[in-house]
Amino acid sequence: MIRTRFAPSPNGLLHLGHAYAAIEAHDLARAKGGEFLLRVEDIDPGRSRAELVGEIEADLAWLGLVHDGPVLHQSARLDAYAAAGEQLKAMGLLYPCQCTRAEVLAAASASGPDGPVYAGTCRDRDVNPEGAAWRIAMDRAVRLAGPLTWEDELAGRQEAMPQRFGDVVLLRKEAPASYHLAATLDDAWQGITLVTRGHDLFQATHVHRLLQALLDLPVPRWHHHALLVEADGRKLAKRRGSPALKDLRDAGVDGAVLAADLRAGRFPAGLSLGLGLGDGT
Ligand code: GLU
């Protein structure tokens, strides 16, 4: 059975881009009699706002999207992330890093899908693990895993190229896990068979596929959909004036009509589908 998920981070109110993503995940599951799950990606203590979870659920209900089963909160899964971190450490694949952001930027010589690639400064140093971030020794991990592929429903079969990211952080200084580790573990934990998300996260899948191999997790398929973008090609962001779904709800907009419009490709003036270049969440 197909099982998809919508996995918003409660860092701000949802906007039309989130509505589009949720509809994609919902409809792909329902078209095949499958399940649509909701996961709240609230591991970032500095940015997550618990009071937004109720708004997210109200937004989905307003759009007519009913999710199956209980909501999974990443904040309730910290032990699982720590255990996976220990497993990777025991495999000799993680090393502690005390570099500041400025040091990472100053030493970086290459640019990867997520920005500057870490130069490996702490890789072979004796670094105090107390309060450190833990990075994956990417070359070692890739050698151990061997060649990997993954399947995107739209883009076809991909050769996994996680080395483009360099030694990414898997356990963060200020949070128990990085997005890559938490999302990969939770997709497996929730039994997701089709990971649906925006094309802006296409590259991240290379890292997720590697983590699945290292941690012996089931391998789903992926569906990276186009994003709603503004006239300049950038993905929607509330700080650039995209209305929050809550504001539309409060203004009396009919959520079912809005959902039907988004499904039919009838987007508000100035918006279209694109790959979501540039920043903005
Ligand atoms: N939490 C991420 C976001 O809100 C989505 C992660 C995912 O779908 O894998 O952009």
Description:
- The protein folds into 2 domains: 3-76 and 226-274, Rossmann fold, CATH 3.40.50; 78-171, HUPs (Rossmann fold).
- The chain has 281 residues and is α/β, with parallel strands linked by helices.
- The protein contains 9 helices and 14 strands.
- Helix 7 (204-215) links the parallel strand 11 and strand 12.
- Residues 7-9, 41, 183, 197, 201 line the site of glutamic acid.
- Glutamic acid binds next to loops.
Q: Low-confidence spans: pLDDT under 50, at least 5 residues? A: none
Q: Report the principal-axis shape.
A: globular
Number of strands: 14
* CATH architecture grouping of the largest domain: 3-Layer(aba) Sandwich
What hetero molecules are in the model?
glutamic acid
Mean pLDDT: 95
Q: Beta-strand level of the residues, as a percent range?
A: 15-25%
